[in-house]
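tl;dr need the bound structure. longer version: we got a ligand (flavin-adenine dinucleotide) that a collaborator sent over and nobodys looked at where it sits. i said id run it. heres the input, straight from their email, havent touched it
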Amino acid sequence: MTDIPNTLGVPATADQVVEVADIDQLRGVLRSAPDALVLGGGSNVVLGRHLQQTVVLMCNRGISVAADGEMVEVTAAAGEGWHRLVRHCLDCGYFGLENLALIPGSVGAAPLQNIGAYGVELAQRLVRLRALRVSDGSVRAFDASECGFGYRDSWFKSAGAGQYVILDVTLRLSTQPQLVLDYPDILTELSRMGVKRTRPQDVARAVIRVRRRKLPDPAKVGNVGSFFKNPVVSRDVAQHVQSLGEGLSAHAAEPAGMVKLSAAQLIDQAAGKLETHGGAAVWPRQPLVLINQGKATGSDFVALAEKIQAKVMARFGVPLVLEPRTYGL
Ligand SMILES: Cc1cc2nc3c(=O)[nH]c(=O)nc-3n(C[C@H](O)[C@H](O)[C@H](O)COP(=O)(O)OP(=O)(O)OC[C@H]3O[C@@H](n4cnc5c(N)ncnc54)[C@H](O)[C@@H]3O)c2cc1C
């Protein structure tokens, strides 16, 4: 039995944990353990105490670049750290990832939930990815349009879950700054920093400062970032929900005609910031984040999440959906 690394910091073991550095090794492991669970950094999973299966940790490395005029295509192996890739691209003068700075985890997991932050989603930058089919070891390229990207979702996280292992990801970035400054938090931070002419590097620094202030550092306090997705509902439902609470925000979302409610506000007003179960608790600075107070188990997190979901449903009639995936629970 071996421990499975996870940023919630819950005790979790598997029959076997294997670090995989290349495709041939991956094919070999999957031949003998086709039901293996593939993980990167374990920063978006809730794990039970023991998984009766093999866990594969993707550790392949490598970043390559193909220039195309002002644009570049950057290909990064699944086992690269996401934030390391963001820093590398900024250092090289390839822009477009700065709003996604400091998101924990691996490059290979980024398409799974179409990672996003501060107005940018991976889907806006991804050109294609390569993935290995678990059933026969063949390798296939998926264009962005074939990945089924949605809000914190993709085909790989939903209908296609477990069918493919992502090997590498190709992003289209620009050598000319393309600033996305829609979020007031980032604008406020830039002005606090005294930035006059904003460069992509400044945006990354502002994002990092805001994230460090708002989110617990998983190295110190176990967490997986947002535990729930923001609910996307029709305008009529949003108006009804808004009439049941105080100052609830609603922002236009896709598909057209839908709006996104703030799960944090719904939790705040329906459940408050003091909910706990066993060692799991709500992070008082951001109720969307659940934290490990020290000795939480995966079951504690699931029980706390269910308590919160029930309270939000009772008060607002809105189902909250978990953002991380659960295994062995
Ligand atoms: C403090 C904190 C802040 C966060 N902030 C954000 C944020 O702003 N935006 C955001 O979108 N997310 C955020 N997250 C969630 C998390 O960082 C991302 O979802 C990240 O992409 C997960 O990467 P990972 O390597 O840790 O994935 P894991 O947790 O290891 O895996 C997640 C899922 O992906 C699958 N998977 C992993 N690698 C592969 C692969 N190569 N091929 C196929 N499937 C694979 C796993 O089976 C699992 O289902 C945050 C998490 C934390 C702890």
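gonna send this back to them w/ a short note. The mean pLDDT is 96.
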